[in-house]
Amino acid sequence: MRLHAARIPMIVREIVDVLMQRELVEVLPGSVPEVARDVESVLAEYVRMDRQLTDEAKDLAAQKSLDYSQHQKIKKQLAERKKFGIHEEAISYLANQVIETLLHTGNIEEIFAEDHELRAAVAPILRRSMITTDPLDEEVRKRIKNLQEGTQDWEIEYQQTLDRLRRARGLS
After folding, report:
1. Residue pair 145/155 in contact by the 8 Å Cβ criterion
2. Contact of 123 with 38, CB cutoff 8 Å
């Protein structure tokens, strides 16, 4: 599962809205943008760290003259060492990071829910919003491999290419 930077604003809005609508947290109206920035910082840091791990894994694989297929295995080992959730662990890792941020921010007036209730509200949003590796995703990545992943150009081209492929295959 992957979290794309372009999806972060939408995810943040949905998380903050759900937490407030279900009255799991109390946020003063003037503090809503600050809470959104707190959640956004967690997601942006995840994307940054994931990219860093990918680069480290590629470098290590190249240094050891390993096949590209070893890259994911190396990345998984690096993530485990740093206690960073990737693939299937990404959802629970991110949900826990969001909850920790909510507990420690000064922008939340009151938290009325237990951790498991907060997790139950946040995790489904993350699960829906993160991209699983599918054939369409792989095709898009092949077509834009000349661009640096994570850059604004990459995000824009990714979305445009994805939209074109969906239309061409009658999926949208």
Report:
1. no
2. no
CA 60 from centroid of its chain's CA atoms: 24
**CA distances in angstroms from 112 to 25, 27, 61, 125, 135, listed in the order given:** 6, 11, 47, 20, 42
DSSP state of 25: E
Tokens found for residue 161: 């290419």
Specify the residue for token string 């760290």. 49
> How is residue 30 annotated by DSSP?
G
Longest dimension (CA), the chain: 55
The burial class, CB within 10 Å (0-12 / 13-18 / 19+), for 87 is middle
Phi and psi angles of residue 165, each rounded to the nearest 5 degrees, phi first: -65, -40
Output the tens digit of pLDDT for each of the chain's 172 residues: 678 888 899 999 999 999 999 999 999 989 999 999 999 999 999 999 999 998 999 899 889 988 766 877 899 999 999 999 998 789 999 999 999 999 999 999 999 999 999 999 999 999 888 865 567 777 888 898 888 765 678 778 888 998 898 888 887 6
**Structure pTM?**
0.75
Quick count: other Cβ atoms within 10 Å of Cβ 170?
Answer: 6
The domain locations on the chain are 5-132, 133-172
